[in-house]
Design a protein that fits this description.
mainly alpha; 493 residues; Growth Hormone, Chain: A; sugar transport; 76% helix; 0% strand; single chain; 19 helices
């Protein structure tokens, strides 16, 4: 039974938008074209990697306290709730001569460039607007940063949804090719992560662009600015080459599709009305999965700087130095995580078959995620105990540092599954039901952004209720991951 079934003609106004059938789409495209489109994920993820590894520490250096720093991440879920379903809906219906998906992908790339420049030059623009160098809280710089950050989230959502929908179009309803295409998309996300985290962990990147250091922009800020320059170059290269090489057929709707005028929000409501149990179960598991992931993804480098290294972004020079060392060590951990993610992504199809299916694989890796998040408590306690005997500026021992980096590495295994299996299942479900790929993936994205909205809004304050730091959020994530694993194994079809 299809989880997204069209309703009877009497309810046409609430129908999920019907796209071309498998026969109308023709034969699946060659794998090389899917790989080319998947490579855009490397450019997109380079920017995401910079966000995940450097943004939380950076906003604290601009003057936002730790307990409020998570609020800046509200931009992502809010834009995801609005942008991905909207872009998915209109890309399903786009009749441009350049194709359905390519205009949105190109527009997203342009927005990334604008956002990267705003974020990189936030401190400089803030000074021009009136911030003083001695100000602890640089209000105007924060506003420029928030604007750039918001645009970046809109841009990334504009890019990712149509890219995945484009892959589904190229697969033409072939379930195996859909899974393979999403596995390659996950692989290139890993490539982007590796490049982004490597750039974030390199402390002398600003020397490649000496003009990035200004009176308002110190070494840390200049490194961030240089990272975004590299991100923009990579994204432009992969986007232009992929859109030039892979043609996107112009969509010509059938007459009956033109006659049915359904409002956008009517389509969204209709999508939920006709969803049946398998798709609802997919959404529930995905939501629990991302409740587990977001506390760590938002605060992983902050955890390294604050809990593992014992630094403080608002402390004295010694504590600030320790904090920055921890952030760069966290970026190194994320790079190792991305390497594991890349290798795991290429093996998901084979491992899934050996384990007896997607739901069993997804369930098992969620238990791995739960154990790793719980182990952050143990690593933190060892680091605290070491500082009590060696001094607050001692930093972690090699063993403690290795333990923390090992957790980053192991987490690459469940992350590869999280980046591929839910989207592949959603694409297969929508192909079987005749629903629009773009809108279906946009609906699934709500199961990602709503948990992010909850975590972004409450994580910092929740942590402060339990003494500050990041461990309370990580413990909640471990519990959510364990529940997600149980639900995946027991209720997914």
């Amino acid at each position: 039974m299809s989880p997204l079934q069209p309703e009877t003609p009497a309810n046409d106004a609430a129908m999920v938008p019907k796209t071309q059938s498998t026969s109308e789409l023709g034969e699946p495209s060659p794998l090389r074209k899917m790989i080319s489109v998947s490579s855009i994920a490397a450019g997109v993820q380079f920017g995401w990697a910079l966000q995940l590894s450097l943004m939380t520490p950076y906003v604290q250096l601009l003057g936002i306290p730790h307990k409020w720093s998570s609020l800046i991440w509200l931009c992502g879920p809010i834009s995801g709730m609005l942008v991905q379903p909207t872009v998915g809906y209109y890309s399903d219906r786009c009749t441009s001569r350049f194709g359905r998906r390519r205009p949105f992908i190109a527009s997203g790339a342009v927005l990334v460039i604008v956002a990267g420049l705003l974020i990189g030059y936030a401190a400089d623009l803030g000074q021009v607007a009136g911030d003083r160098l001695e100000d602890k809280v640089k209000v105007r710089a924060i506003w420029f940063f928030a604007l750039g950050f918001s645009i970046l989230d809109v841009a990334n959502n504009t890019l990712q949804g149509p890219c995945r929908a484009f892959l589904a179009d190229l697969a033409a309803g072939d379930a195996r090719k859909t899974r393979t295409a999403n596995a390659f998309f996950s692989f290139f996300m890993a490539v982007g992560n590796i490049l982004g985290y490597a750039a974030g962990s390199y402390t002398n990147l600003h020397k490649m662009f000496p003009f990035t250091m200004t009176r308002a922009c110190d070494i840390y800020c200049a490194n961030l600015k240089s990272c975004f320059f590299l991100s923009i170059v990579l994204l432009l290269f992969v986007t232009i080459s992929s859109l030039w090489y892979v043609k996107d057929k112009q969509w010509s709707p059938e007459k009956e599709d033109l006659d049915v005028k359904t409002p956008f929000f009517g389509e969204i409501i209709g999508a939920f009305k006709v969803m049946e149990r398998p798709m609802w179960m997919l959404i529930i598991v995905t939501a629990l999965n991302w409740i587990a992931w977001f506390p760590f993804l938002l605060f992983d480098t902050d955890w390294m700087g604050r809990e593992v290294y014992g630094g403080d972004s608002s402390g004295n020079d010694g504590l600030k130095k320790l904090y920055n060392q921890g952030v760069h060590a966290g970026a190194l951990g994320l790079m190792i995580n991305a390497i594991v993610l890349g290798f795991m992504s290429l093996g998901i199809e084979w491992i899934g078959r050996k384990m007896g299916g997607a739901k069993r694989l997804w369930g098992v890796v969620n238990f791995i995620l739960a154990v790793c998040l719980a182990m952050t408590v143990l690593v933190t306690k060892y680091a605290d105990a070491h500082r009590k005997t060696a001094g607050e500026l001692a930093g972690p021992t090699d063993g403690i540092r290795a333990g923390a980096l090992t957790l980053f590495a192991i987490l690459g295994i469940p992350l590869a599954v999280t980046f591929s299996i839910p989207f592949a299942l959603a694409s297969i479900i929508s192909s079987n039901s005749g629903a629009g790929q773009g809108l279906s993936l946009g609906v699934l994205n709500l199961a990602i952004v709503i948990p992010q909205l909850v975590v972004s809004f409450g994580a910092g304050q929740f942590d402060s209720w339990f003494g500050g730091g990041n461990l309370p959020g990580f413990v909640v994530g471990a519990i959510a991951a364990a529940i997600s694993g149980v639900v995946a194994i027991t209720v997914l079809p």
